[in-house]
Amino acid sequence: MSTPSAYLPVLQTGRWFAHLPPDFAQPLIAMAQLRHLPTGEVLFRRGDAPCGLYAVVRGAVSISGTGGRADEARAALLIRLEPPHWFGEISVFDNSARTHDAQATEPTTLVHIPHERLQHWLQAHPQHWHALALLMTDKLRSAFVAMEELALLPAPQRLARRLVMMAEGYGQWTAEGQSRRVIEISQEQLSLMLAISRQTTNQILKDLESRQLVRVQRGEVEILDLAGLRGACA
174 falls in which pLDDT band (50, 70, 90)? Predict the structure, then answer.
């Protein structure tokens, strides 16, 4: 598929885009262009200038950051974005530098709304800033939940919750009750997401396997019992 409009069926599976008014959704796609990234290619890094709004329509993008002294820097994987997730809206609002790194974790296709074109259009149609605000507030709610879990929940519950959230597309799909059975993520990536050791991650996953809630294979976690996994979150 060679045009952004060809990916409309994918975008329509996402709650945010599906609920956009036509007088915003149509110009958004008209402004768009496609970006194709091979595995490992960096889309942008922390500190880069604003480059626009993106939607993942094939593949996956990791959002990550690093901190600490150069000789002791630690990496944190915040989230893995899969179709039909939109991202990049913070810099659209404040016109400031990127806050984190974005990198393709597999061959990836993005719908890209260039920054300048989007800014000019929104200046002429300011009523649609509200729709973008809804995209950002949805991310903010998820961030607060993650912060609360990090502060209050032990690692086994946090890991189970994260698997449930990923299986349910972080609540971004339009179809009620939709979930995916196989989550393509490694144990190393899970440990970085949850700020726990690789060994602890392995131990928790083995426990979930022993309870027949998941099956762990190289680079993926298969959900065998989603309702049971939800129970492990409590």
Answer: confident
- CA 10, chain centre distance (Å): 15
180-206 per-residue burial string, b: 16 or more CB within 10 A, e: under 16: eeebebbbebbbbbbebeeeebeebbe
Helix/strand number for the chain, H first, E second: 10, 11
At position 9, the amino acid (one-letter code) is P
Distance CA 162, CA 149 (A): 10
Angle between the N-to-C axes of helices 155-167 and 198-210, in degrees from 0 to 180, rounded to the nearest 10: 70
> Residue 36 and residue 59: Cα distance in Å, rounded?
10
Strands (E), the chain: 33-37, 42-44, 52-58, 61-67, 74-81, 86-87, 101-104, 108-114, 182-183, 214-217, 220-223
Residue-wise pLDDT for 27-69, tens only, equals 999 999 999 999 999 999 999 999 999 999 999 999 998 766 6
The gap from C-alpha 100 to its chain's centroid, in whole angstroms, comes to 13
For residue 74, list its beta bridge partners: 67
